[in-house]
Amino acid sequence: MATGLAVYAAGAEFGLIYACACLAFAAWAWAAREAQWGRRYGRNAPRRVERRSATATSQVQPPGESGDDPDSASAPTAGLIAVGRHLGLFLTLFVLAGTASILITILATQTLDWAFINRMALVTLLMPTLWGGLMFWTLYDFRRAWPTLVILWLVGAAGLFLV
Amino acid sequence: MGLPAQTVKQALAGHSWLGVAFGALIYIVCLSGTLLVLHAELEHWEQADAPVLTQFDLAAAESTFNEFLARGDGVTPHMYLVLPTDETPYARLATENASWFFEADGTLGIAEHNHFSETLLDLHLYLHLPKAWGMLLVSALGAVLVGFIISGFLAHPGILRDAFRLRQRGSEQLAQTDLHNRLSVWAAPFHLTIAITGAYFGLALPVLAVVAEAEFDGDRMGVVSEVFGAEPELAPRSGPVAIGAALARIGELAPDATPFSVIVHDADSPTPLLEIFARHPGRLTWGEAYRFEIDGTYIGPVGWAGGETGQQILYSIYRLHFGTFDGALSKLVYLLLGFALTVVAASGGEIWLAKRRRQDGLDDLWTGIVWGTPIAIVVSAGIGLVGANGVLGGFWLSLASACALALALRDTARARALLQRTLALFLFALVAAHVAVYGADAARGHPLLVNALACLAAATLGALALRSGHRPAAVQVGQSAG
Predict the structure, then answer these.
(1) Where in A44-87 does DSSP place strands (E)?
(2) SS3 B263
(3) Largest CA distance in chain A
């Protein structure tokens, strides 16, 4: 109903945006009304128990990989291996998944009997969405090599079809 | 019904990896983007002495423009006459390298000096990196944001149960988590829109390259013509540019449209093309481009407002991303939603740090980035008031100093309170400096709005810093967290 009202008041294009905004504002207002306000504690307490110097690779493990190995910190090559894993993941998420999303969306939209400019608009909207989806899948899947290989295959196949 | 625990765990791990890798960049892009909703206002604020035109002598401005073209000195392939509108109440003559304001009588006045707002725009678009790489990186962050949204939803098993849950007392970590989740879940459609439209700007070039190879035998200009409209074949023409006649024609063609910019393409060639951009009320599209020969003979519209649906979508992306499509109302909505996204980015980092159950340099660094970035923006605005030099350096030096201070203090609560107070102080100082530089001009129109918002932000931050300053001291190292 709110969407209908917003579209009626502001036209279809602005109305849909305002309807989304109204949804957020109304929900936040309701949450604020229901919120439990009061004194907070422990802002730093648990975190000040132990203060260490940090290295980036010791802070977060690539998803699906355990960081509990007691020997990992002491092994001289552990840091390098961790950096390599993060770098590999970075390359998969950005170079491979990005390339795949561009190629796949262009290839997919070629199958549509649409005007060129309309296909390009669809590519513009789908490509970042697919890229984000591939990023999530790569990070989510236990079998790190599996999404990487599938994306690599997609890049190769879509590239061959297109060029 | 909930998601399997392993799904949640993996989604959360993926969400965290993205956050650790790109949290700081996302935060900087979100904060600068939120402020850029007020780009026109900031631009006016930093050049409050620009002549505001209630009456614009178009005929005189046209003469000045044509005299500039005839003189030849400083003429570039693209020449611009920017018309006054409600959003930008001044007119400019611009080349590709410089720009001057028109006085009310149509003569040229002072040069444009918008160093700060341009620096802020460059931060948002390129992160101050070389433009091609910077835009690619920032656009990729749009895809990262999509990844954040997907993983965030899957990492949130009680999304329906907790839809309105906002615990803001007791555990700070729970308070941050609830705030992060409520702000992000309910504004997800907006965040997704910002992510997808943000990705467009830098990824258009790689897409163009692939499409050119796949469908146009490598002819990139062919793709550009299809998307932006092919340039018309023109016979050689000379003589003055008939801007007034062309604007009058647009008045007949589209009485509701508001012309806002005049461009002469290939101004230094024998076949110049006159293009006038006009906004159409109620439409998201950036505008329609009406094409003319320079003697005012109408050629036709490009089709951004009335052409193929895809063309209209592509030309709606800019205003959909920056929220400048419906005056003050859309700007207010985008400011609030953009600020929420910035808070989501900052609180996401805080939550991840808190979950580690220990504190180290990363906590300090994050505090430095979160509170140092707005300080750096304020410092660069202050430097911009007195000149072009040092705006960019001032930004990064200030941010580095804030991070160094937080790292040196080794106490996030103290660093946060100190940086909040510094930011409040700098905001008040910035307003004072602006009033000192521009006098009465600082207290009217857009400059007044920006100064008032700066004072409001300073007062809020001051109160926040004082409140956090009265909190119980943090538990010392080695003491039980309890």
Answers:
(1) 51-52
(2) strand
(3) 66
Cβ-count burial B159-197 (b if 16+ within 10 Å, e if not): eeebebbbbbeebbbbbbbbbbbbbbbbbbbbbbbbbbb
pLDDT at A46 over 60: no
What is the C-alpha separation between B243 and B231, in angstroms, rounded?
Answer: 19
Identify the residue among A23, A47, A52 best suited for mutation to test binding to B, counting B beta carbons within 10 A and taking the highest.
A47
Asked if B472's CB is within 8 angstroms of A35's CB, the reply is: no
| Contact residues for B44 (Cβ-Cβ < 8 A; gap 6+) | B50, B88, B89, B90, B445, B446, B447, B450
> What are B55-99's pLDDT values in tens digits?
889 999 999 999 999 998 889 999 999 999 988 999 999 999 999
Instruction: Mark out the alpha helices in B155-187 (DSSP H runs).
Output: 172-186
Q: Is there a contact between A30 and B160 (Cβ–Cβ < 8 Å)?
A: no
Q: Where are the alpha helices (DSSP H) in B166-283?
A: 172-186, 188-215, 220-228, 243-253
Disruptive mutation site among A17, A122, A123, A142 for chain B (greatest number of B CBs within 10 Å): A17
| pLDDT at site A74 | 58
Question: How many angstroms separate the CA atoms of B290 and B302, rounded?
Answer: 7
Q: Which of B16, B214, B317 sits opposite A60 (nearest CB)?
A: B16
C-beta atoms surrounding B480 within 10 Å:
8
Q: Which of B272, B253, B250 is nearest to B261 (CA)?
A: B250
Which pLDDT score is estimated for A9?
A: 75
Distance CA B285, CA B300 (A): 17
Rounded distance between C-alpha atoms, residue B427 and residue A7, angstroms: 39
Chain A neighbors of B207, CB-CB under 8 A = 102, 106, 120, 123-124, 127
User: What does the alpha-carbon distance between residue B46 and residue B113 come to, in Å, rounded to a whole number?
Assistant: 8
Split at pLDDT 50, 70, 90, the class of B188 is very high
d(CA B5, CA B22): 26
- Mean pLDDT across A44-55: 48
Mean of the per-residue pLDDT values of chain B: 90
Residue B63 structure tokens: 């003469």
Do residues B271 and B236 touch, judged by C-beta distance below 8 A? Answer: yes
Buried b (16+ CB within 10 A) or exposed e, A108-142: ebeeeebebbbbbbbbbbbbbbbbbbbbbbbbbbe
Burial status of residue B45 (CB atoms within 10 A of its CB: 0-12, 13-18, 19 or more): buried
Question: Residue B238 burial (CB < 10 Å; 0-12/13-18/19+)?
Answer: exposed
Q: What ipTM describes this predicted complex?
A: 0.85
Residue A79: Cβ within 10 Å count: 15
pLDDT digits (tens, 9 = 90+) for B363-381: 999 999 999 999 999 999 9
